[in-house]
Design a protein that fits this description.
By secondary structure, this protein is of the alpha/beta class. It binds 2'-deoxycytidine-5'-monophosphate.
């Protein structure tokens, strides 16, 4: 069967947390035979390294000075994405509450963004990839073939996140999520922002399958007009 996407297509999927970015991006990549990159995992990985190496998270200069030190490697198979830090599997540790509460501060440091952006561009250079994050369409890959910006109401996002973090308090999850979005949106260097040429999709009332179909259709349309 002919693939719905050319082998070199680059799809950028941005938006706040809880909008279904990861599930959507993995499913679109799998359906179209593309690679997949979770850029949030890279920011979490560098944050985890800072925490475990005793770097003071409240000291941007200390974070900046260490930004080049960890070796972060991302595996881009959408069926089994991986992330290692200095050769060590980091998939579990990067999802802890501690890392989640510190990642916005670490990812706001310009030297961290420069370092991680370089990694992302190197991985995406060959094309054939779905890249999910906050600043992919605006900063990392401004020439992406398709840019999608996913949104959803804070209530829906909190409910989805609480479902992922079993037994968590929805109200507390919503407060933490809104706070993280505010920090990610207001930072000086490449904040969370919809690119001018991104297609906005509100996922509040859509199932995952409906969002995936929508993005796959958009990729197909781009192919026709390209
Ligand atoms: O997608 P996520 O929740 O795993 O992302 C974790 C954090 O990483 C998020 O709060 C902000 C940061 N991030 C970023 O600054 N730029 C990106 N492209 C992706 C994530």
């Amino acid at each position: 069967m002919e693939s719905a996407a050319p082998a070199t297509v680059i799809v950028a999927i941005d938006g706040p947390s809880g909008t279904g970015k990861s599930s959507t991006s993995k499913a679109v990549a799998a359906e179209l035979g593309l690679r997949y990159l979770d850029t949030g995992a890279q920011y979490r990985a560098i944050t985890w390294w800072m925490v475990t190496n005793g770097i003071d998270i409240d000291d941007p200069a200390a974070i900046a000075a260490a930004a080049d030190k960890p070796e972060i490697v991302s595996g881009t198979d959408p069926a089994a994405p991986t992330i290692t830090v200095d050769g060590q599997d980091a998939a579990g540790p990067i999802r802890t509450q501690e890392v989640t509460s510190k990642v916005s501060a670490v990812s706001a440091v310009p030297e961290v963004r420069t370092r991680i952006t370089e990694l992302q561009r190197a991985i995406a250079a060959a094309g054939g990839i779905v890249v999910e994050g906050r600043d992919i369409g605006t900063t990392v890959l401004p020439d992406a073939d398709l840019k999608v910006f996913l949104t959803a109401s804070p209530e829906v996002r909190a409910a989805r996140r609480s479902g992922e973090l079993k037994n968590s308090d929805v109200a507390a999850t919503q407060a933490a999520l809104v706070q993280r979005d505010a920090a990610d949106s207001s930072r000086k260097t490449s904040p969370l922002k919809k690119a001018g040429d991104a297609v906005e999709v509100d996922t509040s009332d859509l199932t995952l399958q409906q969002v995936v179909e929508c993005v796959v259709t958009l990729v197909g349309e781009k192919r026709v007009v390209a």
